[in-house]
Specification:
The protein is of the alpha/beta class. The protein has helices spanning 20-38, 62-78, 171-176, 194-209, 261-270, 272-275, 311-332, 345-360, 380-393, 403-413, 422-442, 453-458, 479-495, 499-509, 530-533, 537-550, 554-564, 571-587, 589-592, 621-628; strands spanning 5-11, 42-44, 85-94, 97-106, 109-115, 131-134, 144-147, 150-154, 161-166, 181-185, 212-216, 233-237, 240-245, 254-260, 284-288, 336-340, 368-372, 396-399, 445-449, 471-472. Helix 16 (537-550) crosses helix 17 and helix 17 crosses helix 18 (571-587). The two termini are 17 Å apart.
């Protein structure tokens, strides 16, 4: 359960209808297998599984009721040595009424009985809001709560709180009372469309309540007199299906995966709508214990979490960027756009977005002034790509070398040009920004920023240099996504027959990321590669996603990165760049505090006005200490 991961499972082994003794043995064997082979700590069986959900009027037979009660006692005894919480279904009688119940078991202890809150069967009563102290075996040894107003809380992992419902239950109320995992016991017959409806329900409920939702349906062994039962099961988390078993897939008795209750609590803390949600009644909280352990992850950890799964999302991102710039052009009554074009990834994406924005305003492409400003590190490859891109797109392309201006500046401030320190680099970046701003002033234009989200979070920009613009179209796009968007555009132009433009974009994709502020190598190639200095962007984007989206600490991010980048980066590399990320996240906030406007394209943004609001002078000692302790 380290870092909030809990292994959960939904099991529907084959039972024998009305043979409670056999069923207790089968369920206990399944629980032991799930625990010993897969490390499952929370296990859910179908409704009425100790006797079968299709017993009909046999439910009124005292022999069946007594048999189910004895089977529960047997199940508790057989699973007493298992460090897990499991939930089984059975009929129970209280105050002369028959209820469809879920028995919540933990290491041989009966924690509680949860009756169905609603039921469509004529055999069972409905318990609304009442709660009782219940002694199911009449020996005073297993006295427990009887009611559907209960949340089961893990004392060893405070974020794990379990709400149980039989069929349709008060899921919103359970979640408002703190439940992060909802376990639903069901016994619905298989019908056309049932699987898709069950998946949609699980996605909706888990997204609405920022919870994990685990549903298990009855399967083999139920009566097929009038229906068939397919053992459908689904495990969802925060709107995502983690795993599911389609109806009539009997290849395995259970499905299992890990849920992340730490992440769910983080989501709830940030959602004001959920924070203000209150239930209609009080819920009892019953503690249980699970020994802390290091859950081995089987769920996929995406190494590129910012990358969309379909092309329509790329189109949407480009439209968001273009629409943001279009609105700013109109609001500022600007006649033109001014863009510094380097032939690198970021300025290329900004170029494509700017052309689309002008097109949406019915303005010609030559209303975009693209300026290449060769400096001391500019290579022929990037310059040539910039030239081809601008010519193919029909923009106003200009070249303004900055070498002489910067050399004069060095003379003015007494800087030795052979000293390639930060003054040498930043003077070029600021000179380029001055050129862009002054050209824009002369033509009633707006300077379009090119910096991306990754650079903003890492502070990889020259303060009041490329850090500044009138509108920053890439500020919500991380570097890994910039690359994919340029590739998407290249494929689109190639499909339209614009091969020269597509080829230039493909070459931009193959060019190392660099500010080109230091002189090129002897062979004219780029000497200053950003990722050699600040670290691989795919790692940093991974760190950014989990740190800013969910608020995870360094130790958990490191563990996730180990899974995601297994075979790509060794542990020492991940730890090294994680330290760089943590340090720069804190020390570079002053740049983000005054960054220009620009559109967010996902839930993660570095904007100080509604995204990353943090002080510029916070200490990062706690974060570094956690990394050192890994």
């Amino acid at each position: 359960m380290k870092h909030g991961f809990v292994k959960v499972a939904a099991a529907a082994p084959e039972i024998r209808l009305a043979d409670c003794t056999n069923n207790a043995d089968v369920l206990a064997q399944t629980a032991r297998k799930a625990y010993e082979q897969d490390g499952v700590r929370v296990l859910v069986f179908p409704a009425l599984c100790l006797c079968g959900a299709t017993c009909g009027d046999l439910f009124f037979q005292s022999t069946l009721i007594a048999g189910a009660k004895a089977a529960l006692a047997s199940y508790l005894e057989q699973t007493a040595d298992l460090d897990m919480l499991s939930i089984v279904g059975l009929p129970m009688v209280l105050n002369g009424k028959l209820y469809n119940c879920a028995a919540v078991c933990n290491a041989g202890t009966l924690l509680g009985i949860v009756p169905a809150k609603s039921h469509h069967s004529r055999h069972f009563a409905v318990l609304a809001d009442d709660a009782y102290v219940f002694d199911p075996f009449g020996d005073g040894m297993q006295v427990c709560n009887f009611g559907n107003n209960t949340v089961f809380s893990c004392s060893d992992l405070p974020e794990l709180k379990i709400g149980v419902c039989v069929g349709d239950g008060e899921i919103d109320g359970l979640c408002a009372a703190g439940a992060t995992l909802i376990c639903q016991l069901d016994a619905s017959s298989a019908l056309v469309g049932y699987d898709s409806a069950a998946s949609a329900k699980a996605q909706y409920l888990s997204c609405r309540n920022h919870c994990s939702f685990l549903s298990c349906n009855a399967g083999r062994g139920e009566s097929t007199t009038d229906a068939a039962y397919g053992a459908n099961a689904v495990i969802a988390e925060n709107g995502t299906i983690l795993t599911e078993r389609k109806s009539f897939d009997f290849s395995c008795d259970y499905i299992a995966t890990e849920i992340d209750v730490q992440m769910l609590c983080s989501e709830r803390c940030k959602d004001a709508a959920f924070s203000n949600k209150t239930g209609n009644r009080e819920f009892a909280e019953i503690d249980f214990s699970l020994t802390a352990y290091d859950t081995e992850l089987s769920r996929k950890v995406n190494a590129l979490p910012f990358i969309p799964s379909c092309n329509c999302d790329y189109e949407m991102i480009l439209r968001i960027q273009a629409e943001g710039l279009r609105a700013r052009i109109k609001a500022a009554h600007a006649d033109t756009l001014v863009l510094g074009i380097s032939g690198g990834l970021d300025s290329t994406l900004a170029l494509l977005v700017a052309v689309d924005a002008l097109k949406s305003l019915d303005k010609p492409a030559n209303k975009l002034i693209c300026i290449t400003m060769p400096g001391f590190g500019t290579t022929s490859r990037t310059k040539n790509n910039a030239t081809v891109l601008c010519e193919q797109l029909g923009v106003d392309f200009r070249e303004i070398p900055i070498g002489e201006s910067v050399a004069l500046h060095f003379k003015d401030i007494g800087h030795d040009p052979s000293n390639h320190n930060v003054v040498y680099e930043n003077s070029q970046a600021r000179e380029r920004t001055q050129v862009l701003m002054d050209v824009a002033n002369g033509c009633n234009g707006l300077v379009v920023g090119t910096g991306d989200l990754s650079e903003s979070v890492l502070g990889w920009a020259t303060y009041n240099g490329d850090h500044m613009s009138n509108y920053s179209v890439n500020c919500g796009v991380p570097k890994t996504l910039v690359r994919r968007l340029v590739g998407f555009a290249a494929d689109r132009y190639k499909a339209n027959g614009q091969t020269a433009l597509a080829d230039a974009l493909y070459d931009v994709l193959g060019t190392p990321v660099s500010p080109e502020l230091l002189p090129a190598n002897e062979n004219g190639s780029i000497a200053q590669k950003t990722e050699d200095l600040v670290g691989p962007y795919e790692l940093h984007d991974f760190f950014i996603y989990y740190a800013l989206r969910y608020g995870f600490g360094p130790a958990k991010i490191y563990r996730l990165a180990q899974y995601a980048f297994d075979g790509s980066y060794d542990d020492s590399e991940i730890k090294k760049w994680l330290k760089v990320f943590a340090r720069r996240l804190f020390t570079q906030q002053f740049k983000r505090s005054c960054m220009p406007d620009g559109p967010a394209v996902s839930a993660i943004t570095a904007s100080p006005r509604g995204g990353l609001c943090m002080p510029s002078d916070a200490a990062f000692a706690l974060w570094m200490s956690e990394i050192d302790g890994i």
